[in-house]
Amino acid sequence: MHWRATARTGQLHSRVYENSRVAGATILLDFHGRSYRGSAALNSAELAIVTVAALANAVFIQGQQIGLVTNGRDAADRIREEGWQGEFLNRTLARQQAATVAENTRMRPVVVPTRKSSDNFLRILETLARLEQTDAWIFPA
């Protein structure tokens, strides 16, 4: 009830309050190498990426804020640190290079802050596209 306005105008007035709750989501994606094992590991990792993208899209379409936290590694960061070695002399060297797993010393998660904007949703999609499995950081249980 808005008593001053009611007394001044002689008609009943009430105050309208805006909703003080903020909905949205921060999605956690476990992209540690031990979480994806066996013959279907690659498919499971791809399915996890697609699922997170779909969830982020659903939250974004509802007009809510969205964020992402993952223990995966950003491929762009890896290339900046280690360089790009994309030239191979033969197929055997290419397979050896791909099978070699360097120890990952990066101990921080990849974070896209929770915000309400189309740019933030696109940033989540870009981050998911560059994500690689890692062995450095485990989500606590």
Summarize the structure.
With 141 residues, the protein is α+β, with helices and mostly antiparallel strands. The chain has helices at 3-9, 41-61, 75-82, 91-99, 118-130, and strands at residues 24-29, 65-70, 73-74, 110-115, 131-132.
Walk me through this protein's architecture.
- Helix 2 links the parallel strand 1 and strand 2.
- The radius of gyration is 24 Å and the shape is elongated.
- It has one domain.
- Helix 2 packs antiparallel against helix 5.
- It is of the alpha+beta class and 141 residues long.
- The longest helix has 21 residues.
- It has 5 helices and 5 strands; from the N terminus they run αβαββααβαβ.
- The strands form 2 sheets. The protein has a 3-stranded mixed β-sheet with strand order 1-2-4, covered by helices on one side. A two-stranded antiparallel sheet has the order 3-5.
Q: What spatial order of strands do you see in the largest sheet? A: 1-2-4
Shape: elongated
Class from secondary-structure proportions: alpha+beta
* Overall number of strands: 5
Query: Strand portion, in percent?
Result: 15-25%
What composes the largest sheet? 3 strands, mixed
Mean pLDDT: 82
- Percentage of residues assigned to helices: 40-55%
